[in-house]
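Hello Y.,

Per our agreement to keep a running log of every chain we model this quarter, I'm adding this entry. I've kept the format consistent with earlier entries: sequence first, then predicted structure.
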Amino acid sequence: MAVTSFQDLPLADRDHEWDGDAAEKRVRAWAGAEDEPNEKYRDAHVWYDAEKKDNFTAYKLLIADLVDGRLRAVPRGVMAAGNVMVGGRGGVDMPTKDVDRAKSHLAKYYAKMDDEAPWERDWPWVRGAGAWRRAA
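Predicted structure for the entry above:
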């Protein structure tokens, strides 16, 4: 299991749309990873299962897409990954030992966006009605 190295990718515009499925297809093509994942494909994700690195399903928390022909971190993709790290969409299946490193990786992109990661904010989150929300 492994958290990918922080790539310090340039950021797309904050309002750039995020479609994770479409981004995944573009990243595969850009990386030349049509048949199996490779290092370029890995760099667009925050975490992967190193023991299954030849399987696309081993890669989690895609945060990048191609924008104007360049791989960029997409703020809405970073926020979607951050939401998953705090339990949104059922959370992410990764070893406990990797959680803090994955959060640290994502927090660097939040900082680039002049924002705070959800787990760093000073207000508590509670889960209710199937979604995370601010506590009253």
